[in-house]
Amino acid sequence: MVELPTADDLRAARLRLDGVAHRTPVVTSETLDGLSGRRLFFKCENLQKIGAFKIRGASNLILGLSDADAARGVVTHSSGNHAQAVALAARTRGIRAHVVMPANAPSVKRAAVEGYGAQVITCEPVEAERRRVSEQVLEETGGIFVPPFDHPQIVAGQATAIAELLEDVPHLDAVVAPVGGGGLLSGACLAVQASQLPVKVFGAEPLGADDAARSMEAGERIPQTGPNTIADGLLTSLSELTWTIIRQGVERVVTVEEDEIVAAMRLFWERTKLIIEPSAAVAVAAVLGPAFRDLQDLPRVGVVLSGGNVDLRRLPWTT
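RESULT FIELD:
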């Protein structure tokens, strides 16, 4: 049976992360409000430590380890943001970190992981290879595995971002978060449930990596096969844990095309002067698209900007 995170886990995570993760600001834009036909409130996890929300979940799990487990060090696999989060959280705890990264991970993210002191092990850019190499490293090092999303304490840590948003912006009608493996979107469900507020939760997903949308439509978890999207942080399939939470708590998963992601990313840069990465732009594209224009009963919507780590040498509108 899947162990689900609870409101108590969320409260504990908020205490554990106090002073560890930033309480990121919420920004608005009259231009984006006008384009969407509603008030939008952007939770800036792109301004978080390591440039993404992932520091919350990784720190919650790693700082919560017993001293004996922590002494074994930690191991993870990630295309970038979770890798950075584990590396920094391990450094904060004063323990070793081994990170398996696909060969096509953005160079800016690999450099950051190494800068935080973690050892990077390269693997082929397919999910099966990530897992195989991670298992090999775990066997060699005896470390503790820190999954990118498939753990109740990871979800509870990510939920702290949405809990802050709900406190900082009263009377929200909905929250929108991008979905890959589902840790952030699951965290949104947990935070809304714990708040007992009448807030709807929506996911945003690239059409080229739409396992969550297909799973919601089918009523059963459908693993990702051959994802193809610029949003490199959203390539992973839902786990049984995140799927269980999402199917119960999410209203709908909205999909967006690649050109919509790039356009939303560029528009957000130009209008707000803030850098967001493609995975975050997926949520922006969703609230600006036709699926949301028809939802007139949602005048105030919170949008979680998941990260801002971009390789400035490979901007999508210059290639």
